[in-house]
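Hi V.,

Quick status before I head out on leave. The structure for the redesign project is tokenized and pasted below; the design run finished overnight.
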């Protein structure tokens, strides 16, 4: 079972199918075969800034934040992480700032859907345990 929860205000026009496809494609490419759940929230700069200040102690907005529920799932995937009664692997939550994504799309001459797709993939990498400095 694949459960992808996408939350967005009507102020931020997104194409849910593109986000879902990005997640499913990324997990398939990394051979994640477990039943899983992931949540994606499309938010504004004010909320993103608030989250970044609370969790990273940095008072500015950003494009994407991820909050994994599993520690380094992909890196340690031989471990048995599924301990829920429904056998659903809950990977975590991704937050994407729509205004920041729009600015970046304009800067890189991309469609907003392409930028959201890239940010979703970036967030998924973090949920799977890949990190950068």
């Amino acid at each position: 079972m694949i459960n992808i929860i996408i939350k967005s205000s009507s102020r931020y026009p997104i194409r849910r199918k593109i986000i879902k496809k990005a997640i499913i494609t990324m997990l398939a490419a990394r051979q994640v075969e477990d039943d899983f759940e992931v949540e994606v929230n499309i938010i504004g700069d004010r909320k993103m800034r608030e989250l970044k200040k609370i969790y990273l102690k940095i008072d500015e907005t950003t494009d994407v934040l991820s909050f994994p529920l599993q520690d380094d799932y992909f890196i340690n995937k031989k471990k048995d992480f599924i301990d829920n009664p429904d056998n659903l692997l809950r990977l975590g939550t991704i937050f994407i700032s729509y205004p920041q994504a729009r600015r970046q799309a304009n800067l890189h001459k991309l469609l907003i859907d392409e930028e959201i797709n890239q940010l979703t993939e970036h967030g998924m990498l973090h949920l799977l345990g890949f990190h950068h400095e």
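Above is the designed sequence. The chain is about 40% helix and 20% strand.

G. will cover questions while I'm gone.

Best,
W.
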